[in-house]
Design brief:
This protein is α+β, with helices and mostly antiparallel strands and 183 residues long. It has 2 domains: 115 residues, Alpha-Beta Plaits (2-Layer Sandwich), CATH 3.30.70; 48 residues, SH3 type barrels (Roll), CATH 2.30.30. The chain is built from 3 helices and 11 strands, in the order βαββββαβαβββββ. It has a 5-stranded antiparallel β-sheet with strand order 10-9-8-7-11, with no helix packed on it. A 4-stranded antiparallel β-sheet has the order 2-5-1-6. A hairpin with a 2-residue loop joins β9 and β10.
Length: 183
C-alpha cells in the first residue's frame, strides 16, 4: 500500500465551539475508522496571565479563534465527514465553496512552532520595565499610586518602586503584574 500523504488544512468553526469541533472530529474519525487518513486536530492556544483578587491566574486562550487545524489526506469521504461535523462552517479555500486549500509548509511550521514556543514559554515573562521609568500601581494597598522604578529583580520577577506617600518617598516591592506602564 502506498504511503498516504497528509497535509494541513484550516477548518472554519463557529467561534467558541473550537474544542467541541475538535472532539467531534476525533469521534467521527474513530467511528468511520479513518485514523490512517486523519492525523492531528489542533486548536492553537496561548497562555495569558491575569490578576484576580490579588492572585495571578493563567488562562488558555485561542490565538486563532474560529479556526481548527487538521492534518489529513482528503481522500474518499474524509472531506464530507469533517464538513458534516456540527459547528463546522467549512474548509478554508481560495474561492468561496472551492476545494480545500492546504497550508504551506512555512505556515504550518510557524504556527506549530508558535504552539510549541507558547507551551515551552509557560512562565517566561520578558521584562517590560526599565529603571527610572514611572509606573502606576494597579494592585494591592497602594492601588492608584504612581512611582518610579528603582531596581529590577529578574529572578523573583519583582520591582522596587519608590512611591510618594504623604510627601515622603516609600520603597515598595511589587511583582510585574501589580504595576502598569504610565501611558
Amino acid at each position: 500500500m502506498a504511503e498516504i500523504k497528509k497535509r494541513w488544512y484550516v477548518v472554519r468553526a463557529i467561534g467558541g465551539k473550537e474544542k467541541k469541533v475538535r472532539d467531534y472530529i476525533e469521534l467521527e474519525v474513530k467511528r468511520h475508522k479513518i485514523e490512517h487518513l486523519v492525523g492531528q486536530v489542533l486548536i492553537p492556544t496561548e497562555k495569558v496571565y491575569q490578576i484576580r483578587n490579588g492572585k495571578k491566574i493563567s488562562k488558555e486562550r485561542n490565538y486563532l479563534p474560529g479556526y481548527v487545524l487538521i492534518e489529513a489526506a482528503l481522500e474518499g469521504e474524509v472531506q464530507h465527514i469533517i464538513k458534516s461535523v456540527p459547528n463546522v462552517i467549512g474548509f478554508m479555500s481560495a474561492v468561496k465553496g472551492g476545494d480545500p486549500m492546504p497550508m504551506r509548509k512555512e505556515e504550518v511550521n510557524r504556527i506549530l512552532g508558535k504552539v510549541d514556543e507558547l507551551a515551552e514559554q509557560e512562565e517566561e515573562l520578558n521584562i517590560p520595565y526599565v529603571v527610572g521609568e514611572t509606573v502606576k500601581v494597579i494592585d494591592g494597598p497602594f492601588n492608584g499610586f504612581n512611582g518610579v522604578i528603582e531596581n529590577i529583580n529578574e529572578e523573583k520577577k519583582k520591582l522596587e518602586v519608590m512611591v510618594k506617600i504623604f510627601g515622603r518617598k516609600t520603597p515598595l516591592e511589587l511583582n510585574y503584574m501589580q504595576v502598569d506602564k504610565n501611558s
